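Researcher: Next entry in the queue.
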Amino acid sequence: MRHAQIMFTALTLLVTSLSLPGCAGSRPSQLAPDAALRTSSKRSEDAALGRIEDPGFLFGQPKSGGKAIRVKALAYTGWSVKAKRAPRGAWGDPLTPDIKAVAVSPDLLKLGLDRGDTINIEGLPGDYKVLDVMHSRHDRTIDIYYGDDQCGARQWGKRTLTITWQ
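Model: Structure for this entry, 166 residues:
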């Protein structure tokens, strides 16, 4: 009887995972790191440009006058079954699916980040705007907004990386 229950549970999980819209069928995320950046041709290009010998490039130091900090990076979506309007950030900014936004922990606000500041996130292309604040229980943490792409947010998971800002 116990084996039958285990088999039934496993079968139910398999059918559920196959029938739900999964990450394989989701649209490609705008935030997915470009795998081509890690190829050997890119490394040789960096060497040709002199970046390999540049300590600022190697160790992630910010450009002149900028600040950098190592943070835990999570992902979140604005998706909700009960939502009747577009999600908004802590300061009331609308969060549309195509916007590149982040929520920051309150301790990062004390370090100089503020509403509307743009940050660079290690491994992700482009600039992201600070449009939301996280709960005070988080320290040295950012939350990257994934619009309505739940699968992309799940795939991102939790990572430790460096952010820079002016």
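Model: Residues 62-165 form a domain with the Barwin-like endoglucanases fold (CATH 2.40.40.10).
Researcher: Noted, moving on.
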